Amino acid sequence: MTSQPNPTAPTPTVRASASPHDAQPHLKRALQSRHIQLIAIGGAIGTGLFMGSGKTISVAGPSVLLVYLIIGGMLYFVMRAMGELLLSRKSYRNFADMTGDILGPWAAYFTGWTYWFCWVVTAVADVIVIASVYVVHLAPALPEWSLPVIALVVIAILIGLNLPTVRAFGETEFWFAMVKIIAIVALIVAGVALILVGYESEHGRATFAHLWADGGFFSTGFMGFVAAFQIATFAFVGIELVGTTAAETKDPEHNLPKAVNSIPVRILLFYIGSLVVLMSVMPWTAYDADNSPFIQVFDAAGLPAAAAIVNLVVLTSAMSSANSGIYSTSRMVYGLATERDAPSVFARLSRRKVPQNALFLTGVMLLSSVVLLVFGLGESTGFAIVTTVSSLCFMFVWSMILISYLVYRRRRPQEHAASTFPMPFGRIMPWVVLAFFGFLLWAFTGDADTRIGLVATPVWFALLAVGYLGLRRTPAHRRARAEHRAFAAREVVLAERWRRGSGE
Length: 504
Description:
Strand content: under 5%
């Protein structure tokens, strides 16, 4: 259960409690515990792991295991901060509401729209690899001109999966994620069996010794280790996906903490476990950076049927990731529209309580994947640039969550003290993780393709700033900013009064 409200605490700001959305139909709480658990897993296992791990292995060698472990550990603390914040106020529908309530209307605008953009870009990357890699691997005779057509079909299917009720989305994502889990567990079991029997392939004998025998654990040196952070970061985008389900989750006080606390197990099993097996069955030098290592390992084992099955699983995984992205973007735009940070047309719900106009907006944006494929930017250059932009934008969102948490602890110490799901090491870890994000920015300067993404990303924030300059002049936004300032000032007074009374 959530913490009990402090009797002296002010009511939430206009953006969290008295917003225009109160007079409109609400999203329906139809996602059950099993949906939330599998959405949390499915959001974190997608194209970045199945496709991107080939490149991370090629640039870092076995040290890629440490890369995934470090990133996963850091993002666990982001999730714990988000979990404590979301459960502190039942009025929060997602973390854009949360950042807006704590930091001000500007934060809701920049966080919400950037998160929408994050998932649009991620879904574009997913559609690109589905059309140009996975489908082509299943049907290699397809002509080049068919790739944009395949992308159009994929986009239509994804929109169709999200138009029914939110429960239908939950069921779809549940089974998508289940396929991924079964596939990874099967890969680990099959890989361990190959290692134990000492299977011989054209690349040599399967053995755990490959993890240190082929040039050592840090076989590509320190800069190779650093370069892996560029690609591996993208594997974790979507880890915060459960934060967009808050308004449609049954019993969030129980289900959200359960989903967040499962993250360490997911990282160890799905990321570390699968990569240990992959690099033991074959030496890391045998993997092609532009293809999925999950498919390559079965090809090398002489099991083309198994490789085809894995390819179908990987295709399903990419569909799942894009499906989750379309869901989260539609809910974020819906929330922005109810707060007048997006056109009101996107605040309308269908008879089934689905924000279909927001869904169609995302569908239109996904057409950019078709353009990229028309110009021949497939799994290499286009994928690297798109995933870099996505990773950087997600880092902004994660940073906003951490900054909100730091302000929350300063302005609402009574709520933190009463929290039943407090962030561990909450005084220092937000600063440690923010410093780590600074390191990631430096790491992104190390490769030509990621540098293009690093240079292109500020264009998005410049466009957002132009939109915000117009928005902040509206009477409603002026009123919201004034109310937030007054609300924050009252919170500071109450926080000091509570600290004196508690002796903190």
